[in-house]
Backbone:
C-alpha cells in the first residue's frame, strides 16, 4: 500500500469519525424539544421588538403565532423562554429556587455595580435583607401609616392648594419618592433626584450602549449621581447611630447586618448604596405609575368617583378632627382597592421579570435548558376575554364577582416566594393618596385622549394634566 492510499484511508476514517460525533451530538440535542419561536436577528435577537413595541403585543403576537403556553425568543442577549397563561404563572411561582432563580439584566448589573458581586442574586439580593426583620409586615407598616398620611397631606397642600390645574404624573413621582425615601432611608432629601430615578428606571432594560444619547448612558450617569447622594446619607446615618440615636429604617438595618454569604462581614457602603438605590427605584416608579393611571381612569368615570367618595366619607366620619389614617381604615377601603386593582390590570405597574434556569426542565412538552432565561409577564392574561369579561372595559366590580378573577390570571405583584415584598406598602401608599385627594377634590382630564408613550414604563405624554374642583 503506497502513501497515497494510506492517507486516503486515514482521511476517510477521520471523516467518518467526525460524522459519528456530529450525528451523536445532533441526536442528543434532538431529544430536547425546544419551545417554538424565533431567536430573531444575530446578536440582538428580538430585543428591539421587545423594548420598542408594546409588551402586551410582543407577547400576544407570539402566543398566537407559536403557542399559547410557551415560546422562545432572544432578548437582551439571552436565550429566553416566555411561559404564558395562568398555568404558566402557577408553574413559575411554584418552582422558585428549585428550577430557576432571579436574574438581573446585564444593564441592571452594570448600573447597580454591586450586583456584579461573586454572590448569586438569591443569596445577596436586597429583598433577602429586608424580609428578615419584617419591614413590610403589617405591624411595621401600621407604625409608618400615620407618617405616610401626614406626608401625603403636606405634599398635596404645597403642590395642589390654590391651583386650578396640575400635572398628575410629576406630582405622583415626587410623592412616591418622598414616601419611599422616608420609609427606606429615614430621609426625604432624596426626592429632589426625581429625574435621575426616571433615567435609571428606563435604563434597567436597555441595550448596553454607553454612548451619549442612549438610555443606558443616561442611566449610568444618573446612578452615579444617586449613589453619591446616598453615600452622604449613609455617612450621616452612621454618625447619628454612633451618637446613640435610635432609628428604625431599612438603611439602619443594612448598616448593621452581617452577610452570612460573605464570612459574616458588614456590607460595604457602596453595596449598601446600590441595594438602597434598587429598593428606591422599585418603590418609586411602580407606585407613581399606578397613582397616575388611577387618576386617569377615575377621571373618565364620574360614577366610580362618587362611589369612592362615599366610601372615603364614611371612613372620615368615624374619625376625630385631625386624626390620621389607621390600619382599620385601610381595611374598610374595599371598593377603592378594587378600583386600584382594575387600574393595575389595565396598566400593570410591573411589565415582567426574568429568571435564570438552574436545571433542565420540561413544560408543556418542551424542554428549557439550564442557563436559559425565563421571562414572566402579566401580559399573557390581563386582557384575555377567557379570564376577564369585556377586558377593555374599566370595571372594578369584576373583583366582587364569584370571589374575583380566576386564580393566577391577575398577578400584578407576581406570586410565590418571590412575590413583590412591597405589595402591602404600595397598597397603603396608593389608598392614602386616594383618600386625601377625593376628600378635597374632584377633577376632570384636560386631555382625555392623551397619548401614552413608553413601552416598558408607560407614561402620559403631557404628564396627565387635570383641572381641580374643590368640594
Residues:
Amino acid at each position: 500500500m503506497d502513501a497515497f492510499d494510506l492517507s486516503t484511508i486515514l482521511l476517510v476514517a477521520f471523516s467518518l469519525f467526525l460524522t459519528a460525533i456530529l450525528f451523536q451530538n445532533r441526536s442528543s440535542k434532538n431529544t430536547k424539544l425546544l419551545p417554538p419561536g424565533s431567536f430573531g436577528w444575530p446578536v440582538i435577537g428580538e430585543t428591539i421588538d421587545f423594548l420598542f413595541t408594546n409588551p402586551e403585543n410582543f407577547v400576544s403576537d407570539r402566543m398566537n403565532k407559536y403557542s399559547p403556553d410557551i415560546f422562545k425568543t432572544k432578548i437582551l442577549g439571552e436565550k429566553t423562554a416566555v411561559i404564558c397563561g395562568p398555568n404558566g404563572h402557577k408553574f413559575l411561582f411554584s418552582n422558585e429556587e428549585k428550577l430557576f432563580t432571579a436574574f438581573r439584566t446585564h444593564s441592571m448589573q452594570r448600573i447597580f455595580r454591586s450586583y456584579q458581586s461573586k454572590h448569586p442574586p438569591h443569596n445577596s439580593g436586597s429583598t433577602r435583607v429586608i424580609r428578615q426583620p419584617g419591614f413590610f409586615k403589617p405591624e411595621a407598616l401600621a407604625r409608618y401609616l400615620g407618617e405616610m398620611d401626614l406626608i401625603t397631606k403636606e405634599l398635596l397642600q404645597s403642590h395642589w392648594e390654590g391651583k386650578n390645574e396640575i400635572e398628575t404624573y410629576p406630582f405622583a413621582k415626587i410623592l412616591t419618592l418622598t414616601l419611599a425615601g422616608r420609609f427606606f432611608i429615614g430621609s426625604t432629601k432624596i426626592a429632589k433626584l426625581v429625574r435621575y430615578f426616571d433615567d435609571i428606571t428606563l435604563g434597567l432594560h436597555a441595550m448596553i450602549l454607553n454612548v451619549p444619547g442612549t438610555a443606558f448612558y443616561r442611566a449610568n450617569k444618573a446612578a452615579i449621581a444617586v449613589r453619591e447622594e446616598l453615600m452622604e446619607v449613609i455617612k450621616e446615618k452612621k454618625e447619628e447611630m454612633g451618637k446613640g440615636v435610635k432609628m428604625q429604617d431599612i438603611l439602619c438595618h443594612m448598616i448593621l447586618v452581617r452577610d452570612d454569604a460573605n464570612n459574616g462581614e458588614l456590607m460595604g457602603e457602596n453595596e449598601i448604596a446600590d441595594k438602597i438605590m434598587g429598593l428606591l427605584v422599585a418603590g418609586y416608579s411602580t407606585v407613581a405609575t399606578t397613582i397616575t393611571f388611577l387618576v386617569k381612569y377615575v377621571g373618565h368615570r364620574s360614577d366610580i368617583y362618587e362611589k369612592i367618595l362615599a366610601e372615603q366619607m364614611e371612613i372620615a366620619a368615624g374619625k376625630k378632627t385631625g386624626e390620621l389614617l389607621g390600619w382599620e381604615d385601610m381595611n374598610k377601603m374595599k371598593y377603592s382597592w378594587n378600583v386600584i386593582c382594575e387600574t393595575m390590570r389595565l396598566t400593570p405597574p410591573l411589565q415582567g421579570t426574568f429568571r435564570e434556569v438552574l436545571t433542565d426542565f420540561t413544560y408543556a412538552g418542551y424542554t428549557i435548558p439550564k442557563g436559559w432565561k425565563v421571562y414572566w409577564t402579566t401580559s399573557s392574561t390581563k386582557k384575555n376575554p377567557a379570564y376577564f369579561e369585556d377586558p377593555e372595559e374599566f370595571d372594578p366590580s369584576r373583583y366582587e364577582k364569584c370571589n374575583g378573577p380566576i386564580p393566577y390570571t391577575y398577578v400584578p405583584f407576581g406570586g410565590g416566594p418571590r412575590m413583590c415584598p412591597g405589595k402591602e406598602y404600595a397598597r397603603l401608599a396608593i389608598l392614602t393618596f386616594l383618600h386625601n385627594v377625593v376628600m378635597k377634590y374632584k377633577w376632570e382630564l384636560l386631555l382625555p385622549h392623551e397619548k401614552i408613550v413608553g413601552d416598558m414604563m408607560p407614561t402620559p405624554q403631557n404628564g396627565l394634566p387635570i383641572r381641580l374642583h374643590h368640594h
User: Anything to note?
Assistant: The CA atoms of residues 337 and 431 lie 7 Å apart.
